[in-house]
Amino acid sequence: MKIIFMGTPETAVPTLKAIVEKGHEVLLVVTQPDKPKGRSSAPMPTPVKEYALSAGLRVTQPEKLKNNEEFMSLLESLEADFLVVVAYGRILSERVLKSPKKAPINVHFSLLPKYRGAAPVNWAIVNGEADTGVTTMLMDVGLDTGDMLMKAVTPIKRKTTEDLLAELAVTGAELLIETIDTFDTITPEKQNDAEHTYAPMIKKEDGLIDWSKSAEEIERMIRGFQPWPVAYSMLDGQMFKLFAADIAENCDKPAGTIFDITKKSFSVACGRDALIVKELQAEGKKRMPAASFLSGFKLEEGKAFG
């Protein structure tokens, strides 16, 4: 098959790689423009661009899509069979979606119609879902509202967003290949809009811990808001980011109170139960295990995060 691929982050790379390794002809890779990164602020290519160039693929990085006649002319002139989209990062017009001869297919990291939107994996973890997964779907001009083609279910367990996305990226690549291989035999299924949920873009303030919540809710925040913005709280004017914690039951101390400081960990009271902090990062310091943190930081029992 002749394919145009649109994607940007690391999670999109396994699907593009699978398409190449399967022997499909990738006519064009569309990805976001290079962005400044690091102290030097030098423009850095997207992960999709890096892989595409290493594989000898043609790459384009339009600054904008709206009213971009040059880009549209290129897209339409290639006469691709499929347009495959994985986390490209921009809304696509009806004209873009109509450019392939067969279909525009999106690989979405949720079990649609649940978690339409920009951050489905984060919110599935934060909201305490038991499972998530991948859905391949026909794209329309709505926000993840197209007819569904295939699904694969993945248990969440105690995974972070980073761990889960890495797993789903591989699953999504496999599912996309299966979707293309069997496309002519698949009966698309309309989404039940009444069952839909929304996964909005993450904001920095989403990571601020409210210690009146239960330890279970906060622990899910810790896993769900990695790698950004990371669950955080303030103590004596400093920001502390939490990366890993266990839950301890039956705590009757005021929410936010620090207690049970050992050489390896410390606990923080929550609205229900408590968190045993295992990994964190103090402001201006590196991320480290609680044991390393406690060996160099004087933490006082009875003080409270807030």
Question: Helix and strand layout, with pairings?
Answer:
Layout: E1 2-7, H1 13-22, E2 25-30, E3 35-37, E4 42-44, H2 47-54, E5 59-60, H3 69-78, E6 82-86, H4 94-97, E7 103-108, E8 116-117, H5 120-126, E9 131-138, E10 148-155, H6 161-181, E11 198-199, H7 215-224, E12 231-235, E13 238-248, E14 258-259, E15 266-269, E16 274-282, E17 288-289, H8 290-296
Parallel strand pairs: 1-2, 1-6, 2-5, 6-7, 8-11
Antiparallel strand pairs: 3-4, 7-9, 9-10, 12-13, 13-16, 14-15, 15-16, 16-17
Helix pairs in contact: 1-6, 5-7
- What number of domains? 2
CATH homologous superfamily caption of the largest domain: Formyl transferase, N-terminal domain
Placed side by side, the strands forming the largest sheet appear as 5-2-1-6-7-9-10
Question: Over all CA atoms, what is the radius of gyration?
Answer: 22 Å
Largest sheet: 7 strands, mixed
Q: Distance between the terminal alpha carbons, to the nearest Å?
A: 56 Å
> What's the β-strand tally?
17
- Could you tell me the CATH topology label of the largest domain: Rossmann fold
Report the sheet-strand fraction: 25-35%
Gross CATH architecture of the largest domain: 3-Layer(aba) Sandwich
Shape: elongated
- Count of helices? 8
Which CATH top level class of the largest domain fits?
Answer: Alpha Beta
What is the SS-derived class?
A: alpha/beta
Order of helices and strands: EHEEEHEHEHEEHEEHEHEEEEEEH
User: Which percent bin holds the helix content?
Assistant: 25-40%
Low-confidence stretches: none
Overall mean pLDDT stands at 97
Domain Formyl transferase C-terminal: 202-297
Pfam family, one: Formyl_trans_C
Enzyme class: transferase
Domain Formyl transferase N-terminal: 1-178
